[in-house]
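Posting for a labmate who doesn't have an account.
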Amino acid sequence: MNAEAERPVPQTVDLAAEYESSGVADVLRELDEELIGLAPVKQRIRETAALLLVDRARRDMGLAQETPTLHMSFSGNPGTGKTTVALKMAGLLHRLGYVRKGHLISVTRDDLVGQYIGHTAPKTKEVLKKAMGGVLFIDEAYYLYRPDNERDYGQEAIEILLQVMENNRDDLVVIMAGYADRMDKFFTANPGFRSRIAHHIEFPDYQDMELGQIATSMLRAQNYVLDDGGKRALDEYIELRRQQPHFANARSIRNALDRARLRQANRLFQSARGPLDAHQLSTITQDDIRPSRVFTGGLAVERNPSQDTTP
């Protein structure tokens, strides 16, 4: 008789103790500390963690046999933290024993779909091989399905994914992400995915105050600060930028700060007449933010800050 069979079946479980000893509390604490806002998302992750803790306790008592379906859909606009939450989810699933490794493989259509006959299957299978034991995160998953192009090979990748999601759900969790409306259409056109995905989590857009907090946190991480004028200018920038097309929440804020740092460096280089101290090197002012096209009625340009032509 092996050791597994000899281990006594527990008669009771202390869920609070399991919560702390499993490390789930640490993952959820990190989620709260690292991500601003997203209250409904964090609540769904806490609920999922509770479900898995109870499921694990039931399995230990012989009350559950099958691995629960853990594949997920994250829907929301760009820059709302979907990839970050997926990474935390991978860690949570690993700590609870639902995946062996707890790593995250992030891919898009180009990583799965080939350019010619016979190319898609090996590409998709190679990605799945790398993801086994962890979480496969498919961003903008709806691009896999292109019914208007009869020569497209996305359907082949979809069929392989569906098979693996069903047959290997005890060794792989798939998270599909993208815009909410496009994800709905994708699931309608591919009911096989909807039936295999048990958890649908919606990521709301950030509010202005939350975006300001995110900006402050991003700058702090790089040892920058905003002076009072810079803070007012950034608040105005956020309000104006949200009204423009292609706003990508935290991603757009990061791009704006990158451009502000570029302008600050040019300002210091052109105006410095003597030694600069740490405070001067680390302070972003309104002069570094207000030259943005957003304040002049133009559209903000989401691109590499090194390509910014604004002084």
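Reply:
Got it, the structure tokens are right above this. Strands lie at 72-76, 104-107, 135-139, 173-178, 199-203, 225-226, 283-284.
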